[in-house]
Amino acid sequence: MSVLGNKIRTVFGSAAILKNPQNYDVFLGRNLPSFVKDFLISQYANSDGTLRKSELARYLDEHIPSNNNAVKARLRNGETLTLLTRFIVTTNLIANKVQFQIPDMGIKPNETLIPPYLIEKYPADLIDGEKWGLLKVVYLPPDESSAGHVEMVDFKPFKPLQKLDLNLYRKFRSEFTTEEWIDVIISAMEYNPASFKSLTQKLEFITRLLPFIEPRLNMVELAPKGTGKSYVFGNLSKYSWLVSGGAVSRAKLFFDKSRRTPGIMHDHDLVSFDEIQSITFTDPLEMRAILKGYLEYGKATVDNYEFMSECGLMLLGNIELTSEGFPRSDRYFDELPGVFHESALLDRFHGFIEGWLLPRMNNDMILRDWTINVEFFSEVMHKLRVAPEYAELVNNSIDVPKKADTRHLNAVRRIATAYCKLLFPHITSVDQLDKMEFDRYCLQPAIHRRDQVRQQCANIDNESSFSQPMPDIRVKI
What we know:
The protein is an alpha/beta fold. The protein is about 35% helix and about 20% strand. The chain has helices spanning about 5-10, 35-45, 55-65, 70-75, 115-120, 165-175, 180-190, 200-205, 210-215, 230-235, 250-255, 285-295, 345, 375-385, 390-395, 405-425, 435-460, 465; strands spanning about 15-20, 80-90, 95-100, 110-115, 130-140, 150-155, 220-225, 240-250, 255, 260, 270-280, 300, 305-310, 310-320, 350-355, 370, 400, 475.
């Protein structure tokens, strides 16, 4: 194990985990995100990181069947199953009942029921949307009063870290230098920090976490295939939703008028459009209009329903590079679908990630060391979203010129705030701040990322507002 890995193990204690790829063989045949895997490993690992594989395997066989197709047959045969799974709650107003579906196991909402007593017991957890939890389900065959259905008879929300102490996390952070902490973050993302060639690569990589940690931060990343986009945005947090290709509608994202239910952006911290070139919108003009309002204000109106959320939007796409590893064209946003080929919409995205600066992922980049438990780290990011002191810290640390463009300024503030949360969570007031580090790691990267958006909007639209340089925002002396 590395010096840094041993330090993480010492400082973080029970929140640290040994990443041994051989341990993860026990999950073969089960498509589980990293935050679930790490939670389970932490339950069955000894203090030295040795995994009690046979015990974990028994738990998996009992609660996460590898043969999803057999679940319905087992229920029909009279078994009562307790499943740790992803499920989706839906309120059926017409039938006056609450139903659920387990997509990975083929259980559809019209086959299910959540009884009123469970809704009363868990009113904040069994609301519409995607969830993770331990479900106890049974099949009730048809009788004179009802059709056959799968009923949820007990439920435990998947919230292993409800009492997370941010002050303790801040104390942990203070034990590391800034360069060490950057490597800690990379290891928490399950990659080997030593496999990145430069600090620039490392910072570009961890920038992917900014929308996880700052409310309604909207960003675009274009990168060649194989740079780990899908893995980061699909595995590190239960509060994130990855849309991988296919058709996307207003009903799916915002509000379903026929069902009178909010879409996936209502209950998530972040929604990412992966393989953006392969995504189509059922009504592009409607989607463009709704996105403009939502990305600007965090709300959208559908008929008489006002949708409000703090969910961020991430666009992830591929980009063609030259043999030297740079984009063939300086018009990066031409790679996006036509619905985004409008400067007024793109201007509402706060920043841009230059994914071509990142290495193509290979086996040597897989972490084999001690690091922070992904479930712990994802909860930290979720809680930091609503910590107000970092925005105040940024506002009190910068000088803004008169008549600075409002969108540019807001974007720089938001991105710099996210960097503060990610890199300097232990710094909560100006008197604690190292202004040189703040400028280097927070303010200048924020200005650069916003400037990338400004330049791409200028490529689309030659209005003077986009051709003008970024405001001269500086650290207060």
